[in-house]
């Protein structure tokens, strides 16, 4: 495997640095996206119970592996624990086994707590540690954990988190969280690495992209990769899917990196700050923001 295209986690396993996110995709579309991605070089797929499309991921995984002549070990699969399954050890493990069934696999490569649910994430972490020890997850970590959450988790964890997936793009950098993860050798992974499309018209990035004969999206992903992040852009379009993976043949210089960094507004996505957990027992649509879901 190309070392430039993979990063070694703190437990020694390799994780691809560019993957496919499938948030907001229905099952049929997700199946097609995953199958197409695997046939065109992607080896990291990121989903979650909240997205309601693990069944599509599982079907796409099987289709893509068959058509690309891949083994399960060739694919790095990530999913996440729903908030409504957190805090109850037995419920979490039961629900995770159901997730594995939908994904048509007996293990995931990375299992994340989707949010640090107040007064529940430490008990949830205990379940993840046992899932890890039992081999049902090759690595475990958090998603949307800030400095306080991580510090508390590190004080109590027996298995150190391998990954923290956070919102990160030219408009939001979360420097304190990034610094702590780097210090503790917790791999950073960027969700919404293209700022939900809101950063694609930035003149500064357009100028840099023209200089390198690359797209704005490729420059943004390259900017994040050079800071050590794993990135999981979403696209259902074949050309953009290929484009997002084609980011290892150029380098941004220090001035270009700084010019993009100066776009920081340190504001989460609009929905993020209005996040409410409804506790929906069905495990879908528990994220509510302006009626648009997660």
TrEMBL record:
It comes from Limosilactobacillus oris F0423. GO terms for molecular function: methylglyoxal reductase (NADPH) activity. Belongs to the aldo/keto reductase family. Coiled coil: none annotated. This is Glyoxal reductase. Residues 21-264 form the NADP-dependent oxidoreductase domain. Its EC number is 1.1.1.-, 1.1.1.283. Keywords: NADP, Oxidoreductase. The keyword Oxidoreductase applies. It comes from the Bacteria.
């Amino acid at each position: 495997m190309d070392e430039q295209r993979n990063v070694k986690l703190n437990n020694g396993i390799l994780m691809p640095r560019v993957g496919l996110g499938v948030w907001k995709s229905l099952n049929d579309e997700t199946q097609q996206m995953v199958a197409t991605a695997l046939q065109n070089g992607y080896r990291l797929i990121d989903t979650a119970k909240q997205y309601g499309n693990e069944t599509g991921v599982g079907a796409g995984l099987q289709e893509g592996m068959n058509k690309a002549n891949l083994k399960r070990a060739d694919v790095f699969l990530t999913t996440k624990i729903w908030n409504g399954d957190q805090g109850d050890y037995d419920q979490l493990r039961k629900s995770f086994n159901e997730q594995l069934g939908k994904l048509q696999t007996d293990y995931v490569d990375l299992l994340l707590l989707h949010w640090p649910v107040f007064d529940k994430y430490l008990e949830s972490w205990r379940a993840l540690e046992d899932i890890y020890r039992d081999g049902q997850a090759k690595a475990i970590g958090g998603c949307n954990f800030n400095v306080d959450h991580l510090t508390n988790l590190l004080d109590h964890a027996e298995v150190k988190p391998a990954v923290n997936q956070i919102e990160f793009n030219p408009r939001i950098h979360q420097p304190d969280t990034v610094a702590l993860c780097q210090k503790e050798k917790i791999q950073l992974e960027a969700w919404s690495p293209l700022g939900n499309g809101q950063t694609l018209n930035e003149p500064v990035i357009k100028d840099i992209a023209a200089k390198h004969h690359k797209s704005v999206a490729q420059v943004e992903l390259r900017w994040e990769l050079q800071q050590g992040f794993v990135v999981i852009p979403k696209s259902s379009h074949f050309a953009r899917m290929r484009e997002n993976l084609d980011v290892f043949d150029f380098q941004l210089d220090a001035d270009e990196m700084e010019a993009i960094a100066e776009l920081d507004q340190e504001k989460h996505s609009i929905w993020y700050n209005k996040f409410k957990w409804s506790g929906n027992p069905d495990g879908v649509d528990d994220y509510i923001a302006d009626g648009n879901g997660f």
